[in-house]
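Project outcomes to date are best conveyed with an example. Our students and postdoctoral researchers have been running inverse folding experiments weekly, and each run begins with a structure described purely in tokens. The record below, which covers 355 residues, was selected by the lab manager from last quarter's runs and is presented without edits.
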């Protein structure tokens, strides 16, 4: 009686565990909002990156990263100083030879007479200014209004005359001008959307957008805007007729996250970090990390690398834990059922042999 009750319990557990596992797996596969990984909160991101730095930011790793950065041409002094900040945070003393190499590199890069003309041009026109030059010149790289209507008009004229349309400038101009409508679709603030769109346009002019992110923006533009109708656009009201807000919402979300990134770190730091952004999901996770860490995000991503750093922004979701629980229960129940069946079979064989 007791044995049959135990078998019934094990069978019931087996069925329940199987049902839970199948249901959770189906939810993860069917619903894009139910993912195996979830984004960490600010405190979790800080704790996770602290653990990573404690394990991996050794004196050897710091020295190797600085040596690599000092060997680049042109040198990125924002990254160099950020890695030095991690060394100071970890209490790591840099080797004298490396300090001498760093001093010589700074002297070579910061000579006033070598850079004075380029600095003046950079400050006057961001299109002639790369990030390294802006850093060396201490140039006030600012998110000035770049003329969203003008950007749309330029694209319209180019389309009519057979010229080349700058689709990135056009896409971000559309986002900037449609900020209010996109906020309704994506949440957030229209001011943050405009800042993010402006940051993207500035990065475009300075040649800082990654090829992957450029492709993402172009694809989303074509999905969300009637390009053939653009030449007639003269105002935000005209634009509303040619924009499919739902289809353009991912681009609005991207602009929002770029705006958050800039607000959390500063314009120059955000421009530097854009090299690590290849799609909207990475922009959101990097913005989350920047809001948690502030400008320290630069040093941590430089030392840990993009892949490891972005892993620190994720944790296993509740849905995945639920599926693991179902699998564990399924395995335990299956072992119990099979064990019980083997025991019964063994007893029957023993009885037959005894008889």
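After processing, the design step wrote out the following sequence:
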């Amino acid at each position: 009686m007791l044995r049959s009750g135990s078998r019934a319990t094990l069978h019931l557990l087996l069925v329940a565990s199987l049902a839970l596992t199948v249901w959770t797996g189906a939810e993860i596969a069917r619903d894009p909002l139910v993912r195996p990984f979830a984004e960490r909160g600010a405190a979790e991101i800080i704790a996770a990156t602290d653990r990573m730095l404690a394990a991996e930011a050794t004196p050897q790793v710091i020295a190797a990263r600085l040596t690599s950065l000092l060997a680049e041409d042109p040198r990125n002094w924002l990254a160099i100083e950020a890695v030095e900040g991690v060394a100071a945070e970890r209490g790591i003393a840099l080797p004298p030879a490396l300090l001498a190499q760093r001093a010589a590199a700074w002297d070579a890069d910061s000579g006033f007479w070598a850079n004075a003309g380029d600095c003046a041009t950079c400050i006057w026109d961001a299109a002639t200014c790369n990030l390294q030059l802006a850093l060396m010149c201490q140039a006030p790289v600012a998110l000035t209004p770049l003329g969203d209507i003008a950007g749309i008009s330029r694209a319209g004229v180019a389309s009519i005359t057979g010229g080349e349309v700058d689709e990135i400038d056009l896409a971000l101009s559309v986002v900037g001008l449609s900020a209010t409508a996109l906020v309704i679709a994506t949440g957030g603030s229209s001011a943050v959307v405009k800042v993010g769109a402006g940051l993207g346009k500035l990065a475009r002019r300075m040649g800082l957008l990654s090829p992957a992110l450029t492709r993402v923006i172009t694809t989303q533009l074509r999905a969300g805007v009637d390009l053939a109708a653009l030449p007639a656009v003269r105002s935000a009201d005209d634009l509303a007729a040619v924009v499919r807000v739902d289809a353009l919402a991912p681009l609005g979300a991207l602009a929002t996250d770029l705006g958050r990134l800039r607000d959390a770190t500063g314009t120059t730091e955000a421009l530097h970090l854009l090299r690590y952004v290849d799609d909207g999901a990475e922009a959101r996770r990097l913005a989350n990390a920047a809001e948690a860490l502030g400008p320290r995000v630069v040093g941590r991503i430089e030392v840990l690398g993009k892949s490891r750093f972005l892993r620190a922004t994720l944790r296993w979701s509740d849905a995945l834990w639920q599926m693991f629980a179902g699998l564990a229960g399924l395995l335990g129940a299956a072992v119990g059922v099979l064990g019980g069946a083997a025991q019964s079979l063994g007893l029957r064989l023993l009885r037959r042999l005894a008889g």
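The chain has a mean pLDDT of 79. The longest strand covers residues 37-39. The training component of this project remains on track.
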